[in-house]
């Protein structure tokens, strides 16, 4: 199974761990430099100093992370639901000592208590070649101005009802709409596994709310087939 093969590859030397370490370090360095700049109140030129670490400025560093990208997607139908994930999140949060531990606690709780959860904190990446592949097939993806590879980590991965579900825990889920981030995760995982995008479903949730959508609908506009009409006209001619 493609998903199984991909997950088994992650702990090995064949997986490009360096791109995740590099992006994490660059983001950390840039944020540190930005904070130092903000603390330099007496330096009149401090506004122009905003961090360039290894010739990479903070804005460009952030553009490499899926959670920071701002891209346009097609209008999608957000489906609010009640799901077992809400109850599991609520139970997991009771075990959390502080907000910093929320994600890890919820991920572990799902792995132990939910039979459909197959993995958590899954690293994914989307390359320039991946983007070209989708665009060549008329997918509406405008990531040209962003640096690649785009990286990210999927909170929770499930297989149920014949679909691969990408779940992201978001506190105050009702107040946000991370469609772009989750769509990139789906594009990245589809690219790495060579699976069709219609095999995926994306979700963001907290203990009270659960929203899901089909990532295919966010980047691909279904075209009406005119072939049957043309064939009918040909027969009547």
TrEMBL record:
The segments labelled Disordered in the record are: 14-47
Q: Where is the composition biased (Low complexity)?
A: 35-46
User: Could you tell me which InterPro entries the record lists for this protein?
Assistant: PDDEXK-like_dom_sf, Restrct_endonuc-II-like
Q: Where does the record place Basic residues bias?
A: 15-24
**Name recorded for this polypeptide:** PD-(D/E)XK endonuclease-like domain-containing protein
């Amino acid at each position: 199974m493609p998903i199984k093969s991909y997950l088994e590859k992650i702990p090995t030397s064949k997986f490009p761990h360096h791109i995740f370490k590099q992006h994490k370090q660059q983001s950390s360095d840039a944020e540190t430099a930005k904070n130092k700049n903000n603390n330099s109140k007496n330096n009149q030129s401090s506004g122009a100093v905003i961090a360039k670490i290894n010739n990479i400025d903070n804005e460009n560093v952030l553009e490499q992370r899926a959670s920071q990208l701002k891209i346009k997607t097609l209008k999608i139908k957000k489906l609010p639901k009640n799901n077992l994930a809400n109850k599991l999140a609520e139970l997991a949060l009771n075990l959390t000592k502080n907000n910093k531990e929320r994600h890890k606690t919820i991920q572990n709780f799902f792995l132990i208590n939910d039979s459909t959860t197959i993995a958590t904190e899954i690293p994914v990446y989307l390359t320039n070649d991946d983007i070209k592949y989708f665009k060549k097939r008329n997918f509406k993806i405008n990531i040209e101005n962003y640096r690649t590879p785009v990286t990210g980590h999927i909170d929770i991965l499930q297989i149920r009802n014949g679909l691969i579900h990408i779940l992201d825990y978001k506190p105050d889920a009702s107040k946000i709409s991370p469609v772009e981030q989750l769509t990139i995760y789906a594009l990245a995982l589809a690219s790495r596994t060579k699976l069709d995008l219609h095999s995926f479903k994306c979700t963001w949730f907290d203990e009270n709310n659960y929203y899901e959508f089909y990532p295919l609908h966010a980047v691909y506009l279904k075209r009406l087939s005119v072939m049957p009409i043309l064939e009918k006209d040909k027969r009547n001619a």
